[in-house]
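debug: dumping io for the single-chain case to check the tokenizer round-trip. Nothing else runs in this session.
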Amino acid sequence: MKYFHALLAVYLLASCTKMPEYADGRVSYEEVFDSYKKTAGYLNLCYTKIQPYGSSYAGGGFLAGYSDEAYQASEINNSMEQQWHRGLLTPFFNPVESGNSNNTNWWTGNFEGIRYCNVFLENIDSAAVASQTIRAGYKAQARLLRAFYYLQLIKRYGGVPVYTKPLPVNYDYSGEKRPSFSEVALFIIEECDDVLKNVPDAAMGWIQGETEFQRGMFYKAVAAVLKSQAALYAASPLWNDGSVTWEMAAGYTREALTICLQNGFKLYDVTPPVTNGYDAFDIYFRTRSDVNRVRDKETIFELNQRLQVYNYNGLPFTAGIVSSGDNPSQELVDAFETIDGQPVLDPARPYLDNDHLQPNYNSANTLYNPADPFAKRDPRLRASIYYHGAAFNLGSAGSKVTMDANGNAPISATDIRNTRTGYYLRKFSNFTSDRNSNNDGFFKLYRLAELYLNFAEAANEAASGSAPQEAIDAVNAVRIRAGMPALPQALSKEAMRLRIRNERRIELAWEEHRFYDLRRWKILNDNGKVVTGMRPVANGSGGFTYQRFLVKNDRAAFADKYLIFPLPANEVTKLQKITGDNWQNPGW
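debug: decoded output
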């Protein structure tokens, strides 16, 4: 395929390494790569531009607060989430990036990461290393990191030029042309394929390593998931230009899933003690992965920083809480089925009104009871969300979270420590966490469940007529681990599409998928405007009635232009001046 030269002055920035420098601050690449220790140090530098994920956004929030998964409690304080939903995104100002705790925007940060990788790859063949096996492993890591950074860029901005070597200072940008999303995605797929097929396992294997020192390193399973995600996105409605078909995406994702399964990956199935968690799905998100994959065989890549859910997405009675953070929406809660596998609402038309106060109940569902709305629901609901009456400390009888007016975590329109929607986040959190001891989980950026769902989607979209059995089987693997029944066998392709999308919504909630799924499916317009909640009201007889209520119905960031981020204005100005072309995304 044709490769493209990269743009931007960011590539021309000097490398920042923590190594001995000359008196004027310079350090030569010869000095770096003549030293085994400094060569390894420069590879570590290539990892430093992996952005924070999870609760790393404004005020410790998740990306969920920028989608229909949640309503951020701090929106009353003109938070970045509020500015996003008011439609204040411009080429000069991106509220999501401005609220990033790393204070590095995605455009510059990912391009800097790419530059570090290219410098490393330019020098690694002649660098001082202990063995040729180590050299091959180092090289493979840098190539996967570069692929990772390119995937982050195209998910947000669309096609960007691909560059595989450091640019000379006098590089002529005048001939630059912007490639398509698919062209960059194919570059990512080819890089990952080459690592998977041609790098010996001795140089880059299927586990991070044997010691904690190797935690956070890329390895072959990362190549598989990058390949899968790049193909899935390229085939999706937002980006599909015919270059990567659904048939191709199904093939790529089948290969990625199969090779991971062949190399020992499996869904997490460790049953916890009854006082620690409900089930394997529940405990998984607050259990740190082990680098040698003895216990946790599901996690493909986990960020090496403990989340602070108790603090920034917590309950008002927890010591040290700052905010209740991203309060789960009623729309998300409605997505959880009942334990018989029936959707609560009609998947094709879940609400009868624009404010989502008139649910369109699924006529085939006989278990859901509006008077007891959390009973007999998908076990992932209790593992992911605190609802009224949910258990808090599983080892303490009667320890409940209550959201009524006299409860211990009531709804409030003014106190950011209290929920706006009637729900609190439970996923990743640990009831033992407070300001004296944080035992919350780590953000799992990539895991095997995503590969199952990626494959199911691609295989279903590639089919004609009925949903293919292999797509049903892939979804069922995820559902059965969660304690849910298998999907019906006789589903049309269209019905299966709705079930797959819903499965992603609940299985991958809060994991930074929904924000991008709404965009790549081009359904943001139908899902980006309204947030509702559920209020428990004492009925005078010791019980409660449940009332849906409107939290927000004027979110403005749902038009088509919000499907893709605008390129930063200063970069567009430079590129137009040099190339004569307008590089800005549509609508901006």
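debug: round-trip ok. The CA atoms of residues 421 and 526 lie 20 Å apart.
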